[in-house]
Amino acid sequence: MLKKYLQTQQDNFDVMRSRHSQLQRQAEHEQQRSSLLTQHINSMETSRQMVCSLSLQNLSGLKVIMHDMAQQQQHRSDLAQQEVAMQQQACSKQAAYNLAIEQVLEKRRQRQLLQQQRREQKQQDELAMQMYQRQRVLGC
C-alpha cells in the first residue's frame, strides 16, 4: 500500500519537475524579452537631423510609452522568476517527502528481514535441541 502511495508521489514529483522546467524556460523568455525591449529603448537616440519639434515630441512620447512597456515586462519577468522559485521550493519539499517515505519503507523491509532471520534462527535452535535430545536418548 505504501509502495503504491510512494509511486503516486514519485509521479507527482515528476510532474512538478516538468512544470519547473517549463516555468524556468518561460522566465528566461520573459527576461530575454525585457532585455531586448530595454536595448531597443536605449538604441532610440535623438538624431541630429531631427530639427522639427514635432519629431522630437513624437520620439519623447514613444520613449515614455516604451519605458512603461519595459516596466510592465520587467514586472512579468519578476513574477515568472517568483513562480520558478515557488515551484523549486515545492519540488524540494516533495523530494524530501518522497525520501521520508522511502526511508519508512526501508525500515520496514529491514525490520521484516530481521524478524525472518530471528524466526529462522529459532527454528534452527529448536532443530538443534531436538537432535541433541535424540542423541542423548539414543546414546544412553
Summary, kept brief:
With 140 residues, the protein is mostly helical. Helix content is 92%, strand content 0%. The relative contact order is 0.11.
Written overview of the protein:
Helix content is 92%, strand content 0%. The protein is built from 2 helices and no strands. The protein has helices at residues 2-43, 53-139. Helix 1 (2-43) runs antiparallel to helix 2 (53-139). The radius of gyration is 35 Å and the shape is rod-shaped.
Question: Rg from C-alpha positions?
Answer: 35 Å
Give the helix proportion (percent range): over 70%
Taking pLDDT < 50 over at least 5 consecutive residues as the criterion, the unreliable ranges are none
Terminal-residue CA separation: 56 Å
Structural class: mainly alpha
Strand segment tally: 0
What is the element string, with H for helices and E for strands? HH
Shape descriptor: rod-shaped
The main pleated sheet reads as:
none
- Mean pLDDT across the residues is 91
Number of helices: 2
Percentage beta strand: under 5%
Topology:
Elements: H1 2-43, H2 53-139
Helix pairs in contact: 1-2
Keyword list:
mainly alpha; 2 helices
